[in-house]
Design brief:
The chain is an all-alpha fold and 268 residues long. The protein contains twelve helices and no strands. Keywords: Membrane, Transmembrane, Transmembrane helix.
């Protein structure tokens, strides 16, 4: 049991799980827009997520707080370095415009972590903007980049899917913010800190309804049914979210929603 927990903790702490979630969303993008599987694009996002998330999570811990590096963190550092090498490898297999846009997404990630402006906190600590920055990065990496690399023109359907993907990630983050309410710095002004847990849940429920309804115009019946199952599942996660929940509630189960969504598309 102890060994299993350590393996699970490493799997989550090393950002492999969140990387799989991003990979799943890329595969969903391929499915929705009928794009043939693009390995460089999918794995670029997968390894890039590991690098980006580990940079965000551990940069301040090591660079600013100067905390001692344990065995797990050393292994995560090695994994992150290998992932960085893979990111570089797949980067040069992408189209030039995709490379340029991906650099822009990386710049936003760096801004989220590093204080570029004198006497200012990094974007992660700017009041009220954290949720929007993360959602935009996810939409850019899992939807915009694959579309651009496949050279598919921007149509109204593309913008609808961007809004849907933004809403999905936004709601996922709402659940995280509810769970982290007791530990988040009050100056962050997260949604639950601003409007309370009950209203945050109502907001999440309200956003998921149009997320599914808009899909009626663009999905076939099979995908629409799968989306409905996914929406109901996420609504249940919202309903049962509270600050007393275990970290695994969000870091494993909630972040599994995109993976669950993709697996339903593949196997149902």
């Amino acid at each position: 049991m102890i060994v299993s927990k350590r393996i699970l903790d490493f799997y989550l702490n090393s950002s492999i799980h969140v990387a799989l979630s991003c990979y799943a969303l890329v595969r969903i993008t391929f499915h929705v827009f009928h794009i043939q599987y693009d390995e460089p694009m999918a794995l670029f996002v997968f390894f890039g997520t590991i690098v980006g998330y580990n940079f965000v999570k551990y940069d301040a811990l090591v660079r600013v707080k100067k905390k001692p590096i344990g065995i797990q963190l050393k292994i995560i550092a090695v994994l992150s370095f290998i992932s960085l090498v893979m990111v570089g490898y797949y980067f040069f297999h992408l189209k030039r415009i995709t490379q340029i846009i991906s650099v822009g997404i990386f710049a936003i990630t760096a801004l989220y972590t590093l204080p570029f402006f004198p006497n200012r906190r990094n974007a992660r600590n700017w009041a009220g903007v954290k949720i929007y920055i993360v959602a935009i990065c996810w939409v850019g990496a899992t939807l915009v980049l694959p579309i651009i690399n496949a050279e598919i023109p921007f149509t109204p359907n593309f913008f609808v899917k961007c809004i849907q993907r933004f809403v999905l990630v936004f709601v996922l983050i709402l659940v995280f913010e509810i769970i982290d309410l007791a530990n988040d710095d009050p100056h962050l002004q997260t949604v639950p800190q601003t409007i309370g847990v009950k209203r945050t849940k109502i907001l999440g429920f309200s956003l998921m309804v149009p997320f599914w309804v808009v899909g009626i115009l663009t999905f076939d019946f099979h995908d629409l049914l799968i989306n409905l199952i996914m929406v109901i599942t996420l609504m249940l996660f919202i309903a049962f979210a509270n600050p007393n929940r275990s970290k695994y509630y969000t870091s494993f189960w909630v972040e599994s929603v995109p993976i669950f969504w993709w697996l339903m598309i593949v196997f149902l």
